[in-house]
Design brief:
314 residues, alpha+beta, Rossmann fold, D-amino Acid Aminotransferase, Chain A, domain 1, six-stranded antiparallel β-sheet, four-stranded parallel β-sheet, 10 helices
Length: 314
Amino acid sequence: MQKTLKILIGCCGGLTGLYVAKRLESLVTLFGFDSCADCATKKYIKQIETSPSLNNEEEFIDFLIGVSNKLDIDIYIPTYSKEIRLVSKNKAKLSCNCKMRFLVSEYSTIMQLEDKLNAYKALKDLGIDTPRIVNPNFDDTNFPVYVKPIIGSGTKDNFVIDNKEQWASITKKNINFFAMEYIQGVEYTVDAFFKSNGKLHDYNQRQRIKTAGGAAIITKNNFDVSIDDYIEKLQKNYHFVGPINIQFFFTRDNRKVLIDINLRMASGGMPLSIESGLDIPQMIIRECLGESIEPFYSDRKNRTMYRYYEEYFI
């Protein structure tokens, strides 16, 4: 990989952007953008641009085209769910107005899976176990139950509630929530990479042992429970491109419950998958360049990642 290759990391101030920058710093020339350019990632990046809000789609896409052309970017790596949705929706406009290459899943796939209520129903129809949806009247419901946004990513605004009053308090502020059974068991994340043709290259499966802010800070490789049957069904029915992550629980009564599919790199435990051979940042670059990604497979070895916080001063 050539140091002269110019890579743009989107929303680089987040945990994912920071790690991608650390991983690629010695291999390529890095640029980035974020709504706040004064972030820790600037230690690893040549230049960070201040981006407009993702809530303004047209302004953001025009900004992205402008930055790409100004910096002569070769490859763009988006890291944030909302960012990826906008890029996928405007893929044709971006491709016509700048030379940079990028990998995102099809917009239709993103929209099918973004609405959790519709996604759970569709996945259940495919024979994939998903959480039971709880009637908001809570008739014959055993608390606690789990509440999450109908449209969302990660664990932001997710709650465990113990009574109807807590549900009323949450939905009084925002009606776009739903309630589902509270799943307990061993929690797994699957880091997977799909080629441009939508075919799975490989995945690494890890157990989430401890989290902070929804991101794994202790995680270990664990292939005790096979997810192959679910991945096969997903690949047949959706068109994934690039990195995705899948979260599921294996319960005490042997249910394998899929709770989330995120069409992006995982924000917490991805370094473990990279250390295990599934080097997703490098794979994105190679796939964009049309180069082989054959060297990058998970070794599936018994390995644990511990994350700690580190400071630097300027």
